[in-house]
Task: structure prediction
Amino acid sequence: MSNPTQLTPDFTIGHLPSHHFQVSAATPGQVVAEKFEQEPDLPGVIITHESQVLGMISRVKFREQMILPDRAEFYGKHPIRSLLDFIRIPPLMMEENWKIDDAVQASLNRQKDLIYEPIIVVMENHSLRLLDVQTLVIAQAKNLSQAYKIIQKYRIERQKHLAIIQKEQQKLRECHELLESQVIQAEKTQNTPSFQEVAIVKQAEQIAEMNQRFVRIAKLISSEGRQAFQATFQGANSICNNTDKILGVGKAIANDLETVNRTSRTIREAIEQVRHLAVQVAVVTNQMGSQPSGLSQVSLEIGRLASKTFELGTQMEQIASRFKLRVHELTEAARAGANVAKSVTIKIDRAEMALLELEELISEKDFNSLPLGVQKSVSAHSLVKDIEHAEVAVSELEDIVKQQNSSQYLIEKIQQALKSKKP
Result:
């Protein structure tokens, strides 16, 4: 029999005091009667057969049958199952995790003569226990009593909080009334202008006059700045177009260089074949005193290889010429970008003049500002110097290309490779 010290709303019927009295179906009724006499608190007995629950006989139903002399002698000698078959009361079985309120509701939903019949509680370890309905109802009453105490506690706290809220509302009303009185007082004193208000009006007139001067200066800056920005936009478009052209030429040069690489590999293979044939000719010449018939064929192959090498050299010379032409196109595009950049700097100089005039007007009123015109002038002169350096570099690149014969240089490299590969 279990007996928890204190119930909580989360408790289940498994936590309530219960009894364990279980017999087999073949147990004589006299044994059950003696057990009831020894333990008056037992609410009933569970009857099983091969671990299966056949039913339950409560103490009340057992006494109703055993109080009669003829039945007491009969059922006392026979197995308890015979009495269970006579009574035929279906047991109410519940898992131990049933809530107390749900168990009470299920018990009260039975027939009137079965409401107070004990409940069979199936524990988690599959053991069986008997729960008296009176114990279940008392547990529910305790839960309701605890809930009522909690509700009363919350009601008292609610009254306290309501009192605090009412005090705060009273303070708020007092503050609101004080604010309204201050507003009315301010409206009364607003009709008579003070010394500070007169000074503010004078300052407002001076600010309005200065705003007119700034409007005139802004118009001047707007007209000059519009022209400078339009020229800058056109120059940016031209530079972008030239950049696309340079990228296209660069891709074409890359393709030609790939052709040069393939040609170089072919020349290397031809050189290897020439070397191999030369070695074969030398071996045959040493072994045979007179010139064999196969030597003419070898000589013919060597001539073909030489012709092939010559054709490859011609192709490389053409590629070098195209490379020279495209480098010239690159220089022209760079010069066009430089001219556009120069025109942009001229427009920027005009805008600088307007900014300088703005600085002079602002300095008359003792305003602190950064010398933007000086900074922009320095950056513009730096940009012109960079453009001039770029033009010098492009001219030097073009002179180098004109002076150097790329095809002759490649043919000389091939001839040096042929000499180094001779046996």
